Amino acid sequence: MKTLKKSGLSKEEIIQAYREVLRGRRLDERLWQLTRIGKTSFNISGQGAEVAQVAMAMAFEHEKDYFLPYYRDMTACLVWGMTSKDILLGSFGKEDDPSSHGRMMPNHYGSKEHNIVAFSSTVSTQMVLATGVAYSAQLEKSDFVTLTTTGEGSANQGEVQEAMNFAGVKKLPLIFVIENNEYAISVPIEEQYAGENMSSRAVGYGFEGVTVDGNDFTEVYLTFKKAVEDARKGLGPKLIELKVSRLTSHSADDDHNVYRSKEEIEEMKKHDPLDEMQKQLIAEKYLTQEELDKMDEEVRDEINKATDEAEAMPDPVASSLLDEVYAK
Ligand SMILES: Cc1ncc(C[n+]2csc(CCOP(=O)(O)OP(=O)(O)O)c2C)c(N)n1
Ligand SMILES: [Mg+2]
Hints:
It comes from Candidatus Vagococcus giribetii. It is an enzyme of class 1 (oxidoreductase). Keywords: Oxidoreductase, Thiamine pyrophosphate. This protein is of the alpha/beta class. It has one domain (about 10-310): Thiamin diphosphate (ThDP)-binding fold, Pyr/PP domains (Rossmann fold, 3-Layer(aba) Sandwich). Helices cover about 40% and strands about 10% of the residues. The protein has ten helices and seven strands. α4 (about 85-90) packs across α10 (about 290-310). The structure holds thiamine diphosphate (TPP) and magnesium ion.
């Protein structure tokens, strides 16, 4: 694994990156608690992918670049500008939920303010939409870059091939990401695809693909930084496969102990990216254990406050049902 220092980021930026990783983890833990005590209906989480998502999102200019995420990308959406309260408003299904005003399922992130385009539950359709967004940058001669993500199972949907083919033909400023966590619900990768990896598919569409260890903050950051620079220069799309883990069940509605062995789960937890980044921060003397503990307290306080505030907000009223659904 590369050192954090090799990322070229300042000490402040690296500490901020870790704070985002921690925020993603603690907020997701809160979302699970809320489903378990019956206050919310659903959660699907990115635990195990936080380091990869922070490093990925940090490589973009959030004021102008566009993001079409998928349901596990909460931590990336936080880096892109959404707040813990925004996420909780969606989870509680409140009127002020920026993603859908409480109309959509939780975890379907969107924010007009932050150039995050809300997506469908039909997996991978965001990839086709993303080609449209990226094509508009080219037609309008704007230099914004578009990022879109999906899972490795969903990457086998037909429209992903259509999206990549069109992006390759038009040399769109678009970065495709596959977050490969080795499961599509209960289906392991051996039953999903026969190639050695997923990034090699890019060659068939005329652009470069790479596979990166999602626990390696620096490697992920530098890979995206170069891809974003190239896309902004007009050099076309890239496919980046992030090898991540899924530390939880698929969602709040299943139990992975049914289809994963105890040993497999224990082994995966030994490589929790949050723990690995903490070790790096200490070894490279960015933070002490005491400072890490203090930050944890601060993040927990922030999430407690955001939970109380979001829960106290008004629910949507029936008379507003069709507001925001159709264009005026
Ligand atoms: C077109 C379509 N088929 C099936 C589903 C049901 N579904 C939701 S998530 C999922 C698994 C996706 O696995 P993967 O792409 O690996 O992403 P992960 O959840 O592992 O991040 C499935 C089959 C769906 N939402 N849309
Ligand atoms: Mg998967």
